[in-house]
Amino acid sequence: MYLADWLCAGSGVKTAADAIVQKHRLSAKEKLKFPTMESGRVTIDYLEKISSYS
Predict the structure, then answer these.
(1) What is the value of pTM for the model shown?
(2) Residue-averaged pLDDT of the chain
(3) SS3 sequence, 1-54?
């Protein structure tokens, strides 16, 4: 993933993770896993998208 793509996706990751945390009123410890999970999902989506260009 290119840096610009990663930075662009990162803002969406934070927004999505914040929405999940707010909706479920999670503890500080529980909050830590959502950005990581969402980042993984965004990365997989990106890789699937670029692999379909071949």
Answers:
(1) 0.52
(2) 76
(3) CCHHHHHHHHHHHHHHHHHHHHHHCCCHHHHCHHHHHHHHHHHHHHHHHHHCCC
